[in-house]
Amino acid sequence: MALLDIIFFAALAIFLGYRLWGLLGTHDAERPVRRRQSQEDDFVMPIRPRSRAFSPKQSKESETVVSNNDEPFLKGAAAAFQKIVEAYAEGNISALRKLLEGPLLETFEDSIEKRTRSKKILEVDVDRIISMEILDQWEEKTHMYKTVRFVSLQYLVTRDGKGKILAGDPDRHTEVTDIWTFSRLRTSSNPNWRLVATQFPEK
Fold first, then answer.
1. Are 127 and 173 contacting, i.e. CB atoms less than 8 angstroms apart?
2. How far apart are CA 201 and CA 203, in angstroms?
3. Please, which residues have CB within 8 angstroms of residue 150's CB and are 6 or more apart in sequence?
4. What's the pTM value of the predicted model, to 2 decimals?
5. pLDDT tens digits, one per residue of 64-99
6. 142-151 burial, b for 16+ CB within 10 Å, e for fewer?
């Protein structure tokens, strides 16, 4: 009887192990799980690195209300947009640490590190911001959040260490849409907001 019990539990362990492998998958400890979704993302580092999941609790009944009081915020957001884009292209992590926070900052730092290791150079020129719109704003216990859609005219060029263009066209500006979420502490006397999430617009 004991032998049958041993065989039964061994078979059960193998079955459960197989099920877990199928659900979770595996990855080499020396090669972290990929954040990118395509080979192109590995070849050219996008100016808007995908952030980790960001899903603050929101009421389905909440509405976005944009008032004249939002004008100072939008002016600050426009300035932050320019600074963040430039700092990311230049690999200026110290500047980014003043403008971003949370997991998104780590994502930007990882992207810059990867670009540095591959000896690629990123050139970005934001010609102008065409439009800005607050898509959503809400409050939680400790933080306030605002999600903004930026439509800008810019070019993005990636070069190798010798200056050869790998992607992009420095003579052509294209219209780019970014959706960024900013946050600040409700009780803070510091009026500055920090970028905490980015996303790609739905097609």
1. yes
2. 6
3. 77, 78, 81, 129, 131, 132, 177, 178, 179, 180
4. 0.67
5. 344 457 889 999 999 999 999 999 999 999 999 999
6. ebebbbbbbe
User: For strand 143-159 and strand 165-167, is the pairing parallel, antiparallel, or unpaired?
Assistant: antiparallel
- What DSSP designation does 100 have? B
Bridge partner list, 185? 143
Domains and CATH numbers, the chain: 67-203 (3.10.450.240)
Torsion angle, alpha carbons of 55, 111, 122, 200, to 10: -20
Cβ neighbours of residue 144 closer than 8 Å, sequence gap 6 or more: 137, 138, 183, 184, 185, 186
| Tokens encoding 174 | 């294209």
Q: What angle do CA 110, 116, 119 make, to 5 degrees?
A: 145
Write the CB contacts of 80 (distance below 8 Å, at least 6 apart in sequence): 99, 182, 193, 195
DSSP 3-state assignment of 8? Answer: helix
CB 157 within 8 A of CB 44: no
Give the pLDDT mean for 34-42.
Answer: 33
Would you call 159 exposed, middle or buried from its count of C-beta atoms within 10 A (0-12, 13-18, 19+)? middle
